[in-house]
Amino acid sequence: MAKKVTKAVIPAAGLGTRMLPIARTVPKEMLPIVDRPAISYLVEEASASGITDVLIITNRNKETIENYFDYSPEYEQKLHEAGKDAYIEQIRAICSKVNVMFLRQLETKGLGHAVLRAKAFVGDEPFAVLYGDDIIISETPVVKQLTDVYERTGLGVLGVKEVSDELITRYCTLDAKKLENGLYAVTDMIEKPKKEEIITNLAILGRVILPPEIFEILENTPPGAGNEIQLTDAMRTLANRQTMMAVDFEGKRYDMGSKMGFLTANVEQALRNPEFGEEFRSYLKALAKNL
Questions:
Q1: pTM to 2 decimal places
Q2: For residues 264 and 251, what is the distance between their CA atoms, to the nearest angstrom?
């Protein structure tokens, strides 16, 4: 049986140019979905999937991410004085569930380069990668859906969805053979394919489980699209060598690197909020009458 997956890496060093001008001063990972920063959803998903240690790859302008995953004595004192100790437990909860560590990328040389920075943290263990822009809301955490397959097969696992011809050229295309409902064997992939290079419309969206062998591959992967070290290029080598698995995961993905994804996530999560969801729903219905 394969090793249990207990470590996760979250690359969060990108500049977030699609979210300018706000991304110039607020890291896109700290933009709120209702009342929580986007990156907290990733860490909580990892924790709910059995992950015990999370490494977030940042850069020099993202200290606010580190501050969020720390205790806040000033707030806690005020809350205690106001008799609101329950709120203290709420803001401490994520810090208590999982060990969150940080490492800077130093140079923005691509997703593959960011993951390579995690080599010492991971060691000889399998690990999850949660792409920093992708928030996925699901009944079963997506990382858990993928780790179940890894622990059964011992092979790297990709979280995938079928996308349009237009979108596939912005992501990657997979040479995937269906094995059973929602599960595929992958032997090849192409990052940002031209239309004539599309193999299938299955694309990797936000979550992967990788064996430690990926680091040796990354160290020998030349720069690809955008003159950056692409994680997809390294995974392609891995798939060529030993096949990878792909899971058509259950859940809805929000692209938090785009303004439309940010707005959609906030509206839909606000509707699900037990505190004010119904009030917000009534507001939207009234607003829609005048649109």
A1: 0.92
A2: 15
